[in-house]
Every structure is written in structure tokens, then in C-alpha cells.
Fold this sequence. Notes:
Elements: H1 2-6, H2 12-30, H3 49-56, E1 62-68, H4 74-92, E2 98-103, H5 109-117, E3 123-129, E4 132-138, E5 140-146, E6 149-153, H6 159-174, E7 179-186, H7 206-217, E8 219-224, E9 236-241, H8 247-258, E10 262-267, E11 270-273, E12 289-292, H9 296-303, E13 308-310, E14 314-316, E15 321-331, E16 334-347, E17 365-367, E18 374-376, E19 384-391, E20 397-399, E21 403-404, H10 407-411, E22 423-430, E23 460-465, H11 479-487, H12 489-501, H13 507-510, H14 524-557
Parallel strand pairs: 1-2, 7-8, 7-9, 9-10, 10-23
Antiparallel strand pairs: 1-5, 3-4, 5-6, 11-12, 12-21, 13-18, 14-20, 15-16, 16-17, 19-22, 22-23
Helix pairs in contact: 4-6
Amino acid sequence: MISFFSKFNHNKVFLFIQIFLLFILSNYFFSDWNCRKDLSRENRLNLTESTEKIINSLSEKLIIDAFYSGDVPGMHRARLTLAKEILKEIAGVNKKKVELRFHDPDTSESERKKANEAGVRSYPLEKVERGSAEVKQAYFGIRITLGSLTEVIPVAYSAETLEYQILTLLKKMTRKGNVSNLGIIKAPGSFTYPEPGQMSNKNTFGVFIHKVYTPEYGEPSEININQEMVPSEIKTLLLVGSPVLTELGKFNLDQFVVNGGNLVFLYGSMNFTLPSGRSMPGMGMSEGFASAQESAGAMREFTSKYGFEVKSEMILEPDNSLVTDAFVQVEPGVLIPYHYPLWPVATKDTGGLSKSSDLTKNSSGVVLPWVSGITIINESQPDAKIVPVIQTTEDADIRSDFLPLGENEIAAQPVKSQGLKMPMGISIEGKLKSPFSLESLPIGANKENFVRQTPEGKISRIFVSGSPYLISDIFFTKEQYVDVFRKTNLPFVSNLLDIFSGDTDLLATRTKQAYVQSLKQTSKVEQMVFTILNIFLIPIGISLYAFWRIKSRNSGKG
Length: 558
């Protein structure tokens, strides 16, 4: 038997055929394998654990119909191919529960009709060539079907955000009921959230509630804190603005938080007067001023019992602040983009965002318009952990007096470094003690259910920001600032509400963004090393090879 096969060992045709067949078979068996290494920054193209968790928990089969045009300009083909690879990975998480079907509407009229019936429309893609440009209509949308429910992602172009888009829709489709566990405090001086429109201004946050939060989580409840206790189904309270609380309102808020509730407190200690029709830096603002809020002292007296006070001052960041579309003259004939110092930008790179806190570790940055500093009073709540999670740089300055808001006036203000990092956002977590007692309860308070300290097995949590404008409609006055909000405050506040509600599925996916990273500038030493290698590496390699060959020949003759 051995002699029978041995005669083929030296048959070149037979060996070639075997190698060719092995190549074909290996390609067939490995064709469905996802052999891809993500080299992007922060692993933006890797699936998170949430995808596996959510897909495996589905009670019905998920069908993904992906409509992608095959005939697209080359500059877009790589992006769409990467998006399709992400879809394949998502489907590969559990093939029994996910069916992925690709359709190319460019192949036939019936496929185009199928895409239109699914709710997917074509969008223009620009093709730029030397000396010319043309626009082609292309499809890159997805329809998701889960049981009898369907949802559409009209634009599924970016591979980085595709996972978040799909998981958001799946959570929406599997959500029970249309009411969330978020309550929004209503009180005199608190900001409102009307439907986006003519009522929108700097003191409203309707876009975030109606366009971002409600479609994903359901309708929040409005809580008139000065007149009613917080219902038991509410897990998190959102307090925005400069509310004036009655004694009963303070007690109702106290009992909610002390009893293990979560509070997001975006407080404004300053009062603003802006020129008519002007609500955004970068619009040539030449008027307006800020002064201390009259009710801020009473609020500080109340909040000091929980470990913090929001000061009546404004923080100025000379460099780490929002870049507007205005320009300032630094010397005759030289204009540079203006950093508006009253809108600080906190990032991990500058040490402004905590890298260890769950509230900020998934965030790339936070913009804090017209923000005040926060004083931490640890001794007020010794059983709670009170830490800054958003801070200024050491270059920041403060103003506590009457302060003009105009760009020219602010640019003329000397900024003196305080030499220390000042808290702009803090986290309070642990067991809280109520400053109230049975003997001092206000009229109308529920004495029977009075809670003096956070019960065993529960944790109270508070996030405090010295800016009430983190989710303000002011961000939506210009496309430039919409993009800033989408990449910074939107994922930060959404993650914050998720963490407080106990839902951590979307934290990592929400902050993924598509971007082009700048090349790292090389040092002079690196340039010199690369230059030497480029000049001498090849000649040295050839010389060593020649020396080895000559030595081999000579040793053979010997």
C-alpha cells in the first residue's frame, strides 16, 4: 500500500492538483469566518458585549434586510463594504436568531421596488474625479423585522454607528409600555421642554426630550415637586434650571433621594440677560451680561446639607473652550477662530473628565455653557462618596461680579490662571441622611412614611452640574453646534440617565464616532532614524547577502 502511494510523491502534476484542491476547499470552509482585526482608535469597529446580550435575549427571530447599491463611487465603496461586514458580524452572533438578507437595488427594478416598499430611499453620493464631479443616487438603508414589528434605518452608511443604531431599535421594539421611569421636575424657575419650535430658547430642552429621549425610552413624567411626592415608579429625577423650592418641595425631593432615588441636578446659579434674538456665541454678540441669581443663596443653603454648593460665579477657560465661527484679531491683519471662554470643553486628554468614574469613562468630551464652580462639603454626608467627575484645567479663571457676555468684551478680559482644577460636575453616591426630622417636617408632609436615612440595600445617587445648559436647545441654533452636541453632551447625558436607571447596554456603542485621525507629527530624532534606514538599509542588506553567498561558495570548495 505504501509503495502504491509513494510513486505519486514525485509526480509534479499530482502534487499541483492536490495543492489546488486544498486551496479551493480551504477557501470554501473558511469563507464564512470573520477574520478581521480592528486597528482603529478605541476599537470603534469591534462589536460590544451588549450586542450578544441583546440578540440572545430576543424571543423572536430577527430579520435584517440590508439594501446596499453595488454601483457606487469608489470613494464610498470602502465605507459601505465595512458597514456590510459589521452587519455580517452582528448576524453571526447567533445565526439561529438572526437572518441577514442583502439586496442590491441597482440590479433590477423589482429590487428597487422592494427597497421603496421597505421604506428605504436612495440618497445622493458625490463622485469626484480629476476636473469633474457628479452625483449618483444610491441605497444604503436597513429594515429590521422582529415578529410583527418593523423599523427602518434610512441611512446605514457609517460602520462605527451601525451597531448603536440597530441596538437602539431593538430595545425600542422590545420595550414594554410607552412610559419611562424618568421624572422631570416642574417648579418656578425650572427650565421647560416644549416641542421644538418657536418656543425653543436657551432655557428649554425640548429637542433632547422629544427627539432623543422619548423615541428611545418612552414619555417622561412631569413632577410638580412643590405640590406632590414623587411616584414610586420614578427611578430618576431630572432637575434643570434655577427652581424655587418651597419647604414642602424640598422635603419631597429629599425623601425621593434619601430613599434610594437618583437625581440629575443641572443647576443655574447665574441670571442671564441676552440681546433680543441672540442666544448663541459666534453670532456677533455684542451685548448681554450675567449676574447672580437671587434664589441661588437659598438653594446653596439647602444643597449644602447634601454635600455641595453651586457658586454664583462664572468659569472662564482661555484655551479649552468651544471654538465658534467668529474670529478675533490677535495682531494687525491676523485673525484666528475664537475660543469662547465661557463655554469650557472638558476632555480626558486635558484631565477634565474622570477616567475612573462610570459616569464619564465612556465620554470623549463635555461642553459646559456658562458654567459655575461647585464646592464639595464632604462632612455633610460622611457615608456618601462625593467626587469631582468634570473639572477645569489649572489655566481657568473665575468671575463672581457683574460679567458681560459679548465676545469682544470677553476677549478683552484678562484671564488669570487660578492654578488649580475647579469642579464643574460632581458625583454623590452612597447612604444619605435627611436634614429633616419628625419635629421639623413642613406642613403637608407625609409623616408616616418619613425616611431619615437611605435604607439597607439601597444606594442614593446624585449628579450635579454647574451649568443648566448641558442639553439646552441653544445647541440647535446652528449646524456647527448640533454636531458638537451630538458627539459630546448627547452621549454623555444619555449614558448618565442609563446608568442611573440600571441599563448599561448602550454605554459603549453610543460614543462610537466616525472620524479621520490626524497623523502624529514625528520628532527630529525619528526623522533622522528613518532617513538613515531608508538610505543604508537596502545596501547593507544586499551586502550581507552577498557576503553570505561568497562564504557559502568558498566553504563548499574547501
